[in-house]
Design goal:
Blueprint lengths: L2 E2 L2 E2 L1 E6 L2 E6 L8 E2 L1 H19 L8 H9 L3 E10 L12 E4 L10 H8 L9 E7 L5 E12 L5 E8 L2 H7 L7 E9 L2 E11 L5 E3 L1
Parallel strand pairs: 8-12
Antiparallel strand pairs: 1-2, 3-4, 4-5, 6-11, 7-10, 8-9, 9-10, 11-12, 12-13
């Protein structure tokens, strides 16, 4: 038995998803079953990874295209396709994250980018009010901001976020954790607008409209 500074050394063994701790002569085994947690994470990872394994993201549904054209919209582009995480539908956070490293193509003009960069990431964070077409084709407005999320390591992750009325949008469209959504951009008289589409995964890895 190892002794360090008069104290018994705690040995940890890992075996088949269980962690067993032995302390001194008592040899008290404490089993922490992590299999359920692992399965849940693997299931969520599989669902969320499907959006990256498809040959190409599904196109914007026809009913959305008709809605956008009826409003005089053009320049339709896919901004992001993502799996919703718990924090995306949490009423306590009231925001949808759009990480920079998941954005599929530039959807802001240089002037809009400069404007959103002008905030200080605190109470004076710059924001843009944009039209949002929701999954059930309801029109509303949402606020677009840029955030810098600091990590424990000291580094930061840049992202855009939809805030303001996001809780209402999530509730009204029954958005749930693990669901896949797409965010599309378009322009009406050069003004930025967005459309949110719910997607459902098929067994072959493709997505269809929810």
């Amino acid at each position: 038995m190892d002794v360090v500074d008069g104290e018994m050394k705690i040995e940890k063994e890992y075996d088949q998803g269980f962690r067993v701790e032995h302390e001194g002569d008592d040899h008290q085994g404490r089993l922490l079953d992590s299999s359920k947690t692992k399965k849940k994470k693997q299931k969520m990872a599989t669902r969320c990874d499907q959006q990256y394994t498809t040959p190409s993201p599904p196109d914007l549904p026809i009913k959305f295209r008709k809605r956008i054209r009826a409003l005089g919209g053009s320049d339709i582009a896919l901004v992001i396709q993502k799996c919703l995480f718990k924090i995306d539908v949490s009423s306590g956070h009231n925001r949808l994250s759009i990480p920079f490293n998941q954005i599929r193509q530039t959807f802001l003009t240089p002037q809009e980018t400069e404007f959103l960069n002008s905030g200080d990431n605190k109470k004076k964070c710059s924001e843009m009010e944009v039209m949002l077409i929701e999954p059930f084709l309801r029109r509303g407005t949402i606020s677009l901001r840029k955030w810098e999320m600091k990590k424990a390591s000291g580094s930061a992750t840049s992202m855009y976020v939809l805030v303001g009325q996001w809780n209402l949008v999530a509730w009204r469209n029954a958005l749930r954790e693990d669901e896949t959504v797409q965010l599309w951009s378009f322009r009406i008289n050069s003004k930025l607008c967005l459309a949110l589409v719910k997607r459902k995964a098929k067994s072959n890895g493709y997505f269809v409209e929810f």
